[in-house]
Amino acid sequence: MSRVVVGLSGGVDSSVAAYLLQQQGHEVTGLFMVNWHERVGALTSACTWEDDALIARMVAKKLGIPFHIVDLSEHYKKRVLDYMFAEYQAGRTPNPDVLCNREIKFDIFMDEALKIGADFVATGHYCRKGETVSGGKTVYQLLAGADPNKDQSYFLCQLNQHQLAKAFFPVGHLLKPEVREIARREALPTAERKDSQGICFVGKV
Description:
Layout: E1 3-7, H1 12-23, E2 27-34, H2 48-63, E3 67-71, H3 73-89, H4 96-115, E4 120-122, E5 127-134, E6 137-144, H5 161-165, E7 167-168, H6 176-185
Parallel strand pairs: 1-2, 1-4, 2-3, 4-7
Antiparallel strand pairs: 5-6
Helix pairs in contact: 1-2, 1-6, 3-4
């Protein structure tokens, strides 16, 4: 089987993604990304990434998989936040989650995962990956998630072929209630955590 690095966010979806990959026989490692340090402008006095990282570490311990933290905050500021605010100033409204996936999760984060020996990178996104052959070459397709209420394929719409080739989406074929049930059955620490409503991996800024 393959060596897969899962972007453990401290949420239930990535936790179940890691569990499912482990059950499939893959060698799984959890990697938590820090994208934001500043507390100015936060809705709460607590820096939410610290709580998320702690929960992610607990999930990794429960599953018995290695766990690492990587600080991508400098890249995130330059490639997502600075660009986003410049676009707002120009009267345009980019989607920060689309930018985060293209510029951070499946670029900088993927590079970090490959550095530690990963064959693939997995996330808890509700989408699926398809394959077809064109001109003798494999072409990867981004498909909608099975859950019509949670489909997140839009947020990954700018991934290129190289990024898709290295991506796994283990919960894409499941409904959200099924993911919750797996987390409860396996007593994962994230089983009852609420879904994140903050900007991609930044929190409630």
